[in-house]
Amino acid sequence: MKTAFSGCRFFAVAFTVIFSLNLPAAGPPPQDYPIRPAPFTAVHLNDAFWAPRLETNRAVTIPYAFGQCQASGRMDNFERAAAVLRGENIENRKPPGFPFDDTDLYKILEGASYSLAVHPDPQMSACLDSLIAKFAAAQEPDGYLYTTRTIDPAHPHPWAGTNRWVNDPESSHELYNAGHLFEAAAAHYQATGKTNLLIIALKEADLLCQTFGPDTNQLHLWPGHEIVEMGLARLYRVTGNPRYLKLAKYFIDVRGTRPGGDDYHQSRIPPVDQTEAIGHAVRAGYLYSGMADIAALTGDPQYVGAIDKIWENAVGKKLYLTGGMGSRAQGEAFGDNYELPNLTAYNETCAAVANVFWNERLFLLHGDAKYVDVLERTLYNGLLSGVSLDGTKFFYSNPLESDGSHQRRPWFGCACCPGNITRFLPSVPGYVYAQAGDTIYVNLYAGNTASIKLESGRTVIITQETRYPWNGTVKMTVQPEWRRNKEFTIKVRIPGWARNEPVPGGLYKFCDALNEPVSLTVNGEDVPVKPDQGYVNLVRAWKPGDVIELDLPMLIRHVTASENVPADRGRVALQRGPIVFCAEWPDTPNGKVRKLLLPDDQPLTTRFDPALLNGVQVIEGKGFNVATNEFGKAFKRLQDFKAIPYFAWANRGPGEMIVWIPNSESALRAP
Ligand code: FUB
Ligand code: ZN
Q1: In the Cβ-directed half-sphere of 125, how many Cα atoms lie within 13 Å?
Q2: Ligand 1: does its nearest atom lie under 6 Å from the Cβ of 470?
Q3: Which atom of ligand 1 sits closest to the CA of residue 282?
Q4: Is 332 near ligand 1, meaning CB less than 6 Å away?
């Protein structure tokens, strides 16, 4: 059978030896999140929206991205480091392009592991083993793994500094590399049961435990690019070894405790005292996610207080309508409150991934659907835009307006985003359901069959049939495994957009009336829709074949931003269900979508176009094109208007795009 990895030439030897590793019997940690996600392996998506995207990721993007890593020398870096360790005299000692190039392979391997867990593929599996063997060969005897130094310790990448670790708070990314290695290793172990990558990761984690900490003979440094905190927490969950959790907590507690820190690295003051989303957005999102993990695993309430405050700030004042975070290219950073420019919006794809991680964790801590509202917004819009429909081109930044010069690219010198979206997509099924005790949370809507284990050990099969996100009707069939009636709760999320609240905190508002209510029935009988923390709680003795039917009216909604956002004044955006729309050049007579004017009273209709962009919903009507004649006089011409989902733009060649469309002429004139 031909698979995605047939003919893969970049791994010469299939390395299939499974190492043995004495793992402590790692039962669940003594404390963890009060709510647990249903594992992605337990949720089988069979819908027309996500399932094809995940298949493209598996069959196209993963092999493509590995190929890019090979072509760009990233794989070679491991081979060169290994040759040096074997004492060979290598000619090419040039450092990698970036000191974190190793992480691109770790991330793609993480995504490939998730894919393998649900889609066995012996060739892909053999390729991963071969790659892991290269990592093992490039690891120094004490566990240090960072190819730029090993290749040429006297002349590593200039950001790496002359000694191990000491440049990390600034630029070396040694701990960032370790964090991605840990994430990949835990994923690979959980997905395949193999320990070959985990052995490498634990060797490095043990080195970190010796090297960093409060003792006088240890380094008291914080990671310059967070992620190692999340990675160590994951290793702790996998192995049960408390040293990893202790070190993760140390890395958070030491941050910002001595002079020399800055906002860019979230290190000017200790994280527990921070109240605002600041600095480099990916670093920030990973820090807040790591804090949530450590809070859950240690029960430290101080961390929760801090990330709650930071979240209020981020979602209330710094979040794009697409769920993007980090508005400034300068420093790849959060801007000031309400600084949300559209044309120059940075919104790194990695920051969208970090935003999903962070909101998922806050949901798991607090059980409030408002976090899933932000997660869903990000997922369907500012994250999914990061990869082309064919799976081979990527956005690094995700602006909300384009003059035609912004296009997805096949790869980047700094390739953090392609790897990140590649690793993230296969894990999407893991965001659909969660469980606490004998309560099931239904968070996302997508056709699937899931097998959810309650705390009492009993299993419930839930099937969703829906055309979401294009249609808001969701039929859920419940099949408890047992015969006798036994009560448990299913919490059905009523998305914020269906409750007239685009985002928690009021940064955006729907400006047209919501005149169709949400309807919910169980076995055909109406259930009152009075959400509590965003959920309707269905408590009953569920029987096999019980049916929940949810109808979320998907109206075309006009969105306005708070008056505090200068960039969106006099402008309107369109949203339907969780999807944010944009106008793009091919759908507009002269392609000049940045000269569109869309008064609020222009009637709009919507339909599904199966032939467009792999099948998308479109919004259509009439809008004005505003132009100037040869005498410099402005005139308006009524013309056809069409909007497409934001995530699908830039798949038809270069041209203009706009999300926030002027609804008054004054906005068109504004600079
Ligand atoms: O520094 C490593 C990664 O490269 C960051 O997460 C991205 O923002 C890019 O700078
Ligand atoms: Zn990135």
Answers
A1: 15
A2: no
A3: 6
A4: yes
Is the Cβ atom of 225 under 6 angstroms away from ligand 1?
A: yes
Q: How far is the CA of 416 from the centre of ligand 1 (A)?
A: 6
The 10s digit of each residue's pLDDT in 454-506 is 988 899 999 999 999 999 999 999 999 977 778 999 999 999 999 999 999 99
Euclidean distance between CA atoms 42 and 34, whole angstroms: 19
Pocket lining: 245 vs ligand 1, CB cutoff 6 Å: no
Hey, is 79 helix, strand or coil?
helix
Atom number, ligand 1, closest to the C-alpha of residue 283: 6
Give pLDDT tens digits for 32-61: 999 999 999 999 999 999 999 999 999 999
Taken in order 151, 156, 159, 160, is the CA torsion positive or negative? Answer: positive
Against a cut of 0.90, is the pTM above it?
yes
- Quick check: 18 pLDDT over 50? no
> 416 in ligand 1 pocket by Cβ < 6 Å?
yes
Active site residues per annotation: 332, 416
Architecture of the CATH domain 36-431: Alpha/alpha barrel (1.50)
Cβ contact 536:520 at 8 Å? yes
pLDDT at residue 670 in the model: 57
Backbone angles phi, psi at 87, to 5 degrees: 85, 10
* Res 622 pLDDT > 80: yes
* Residue minimizing CA distance to atom 1 of ligand 1: 225
CB 378 within 8 A of CB 324: yes
Per residue in 184-218, pLDDT tens?
999 999 999 999 999 999 999 999 999 999 999 99
| Local structure of 287: helix, strand or coil | helix
Element housing 564 (H / E): none
Q: What is the DSSP string of 179-241?
A: HHHHHHHHHHHHHH---HHHHHHHHHHHHHHHHBSSSTTSB----SS--HHHHHHHHHHHH--
Residue range 375-404, pLDDT digits in tens: 999 999 999 999 999 999 999 999 999 999
Q: Give me ligand 1 centre to Cα 413, in Å.
A: 11
CB-CB contact of 419 with 107 (8 Å): yes
Q: Which atom of ligand 1 is nearest to the CA of 225?
A: 1
Centre of ligand 1 from the C-alpha of residue 335, in Å? 17
- What is the CB neighbour count within 10 angstroms for residue 670? 12
What is the model's pLDDT at position 11? 33
What ligand is nearest to the CA atom of residue 281?
1
Mean pLDDT across 138-166: 98
Exposed, middle or buried, 73 (CB in 10 Å: 0-12/13-18/19+)?
middle
